[in-house]
Amino acid sequence: MTISNCAKSLSRRRVAAASLVEVTCGSVVLFLVVIILVDLGLLIYGVSLNDSVCRDAARKSASGNPIQAESRALLLISQMNSRNSGLVSHFRLVPPVEIEITSQPKLRRNPENDVLVNPGGLVTGSVTVTTQVEITPFALQFVLGGKDPLKFQSKQTFPISYVMPPD
């Protein structure tokens, strides 16, 4: 083997080794980018789902007797927690459910027996519900050192649609 053949063989090995190093570094960078994109997708999905749960809880709590608004919101949130098992299923209601009643029927005295009677009628106002979700992304768990998960809140307001029945 001559010196020129040996140099050619050595140069081919260097090119192959450099290509192998480039592929390895590129694979590591690509893997990190994919993990970050998965985390961002998880965050976007969790925040979107929290907005949806909050909107549904506000709608449900506004469609009935305002006294029971919080219990209806809690029921819906517990249903969503049991339905969405997995990474995004830690929804919780941030108390209190804010109820603002602008008009409601006034009690009247019954002339026969002098007792206050509810005449029934339309109740108007609004209900505001705030929900919170905790999301723990994969890569951020290691970056943050396993600390508390990220918390996101959503707040929705819906008009009350309730007709109070007469006594």
What distinguishing features does this structure have?
alpha+beta; 5-stranded antiparallel sheet; rod-shaped; two-stranded antiparallel sheet; 167 residues; 25% strand
Q: Please report the distance between the alpha carbons of the first and last residues.
A: 110 Å
Structural class: alpha+beta
Catalogue the unreliable spans.
Answer: none
The average pLDDT score comes to 85
Could you spell the SSE succession in H and E letters?
HHEEEEEHEE
Q: How can the largest sheet be summarized? A: 5 strands, antiparallel
What is the number of helical segments per DSSP (H or I, 4+ residues)? 3
Write the layout of secondary structure elements.
Blueprint: H1 3-62, H2 69-83, E1 91-93, E2 98-103, E3 108-109, E4 116-117, E5 121-135, H3 138-143, E6 150-159, E7 162-164
Antiparallel strand pairs: 1-5, 2-5, 3-4, 5-6, 5-7
Describe the model.
The protein has 167 residues and is of the alpha+beta class. The protein has one domain (3-164). Helices cover 49% and strands 25% of the residues. Strands 1, 2, 5, 6 and 7 form a five-stranded antiparallel β-sheet that branches. Strands 3-4 form a two-stranded antiparallel sheet. α1 runs antiparallel to α2. The chain is rod-shaped.
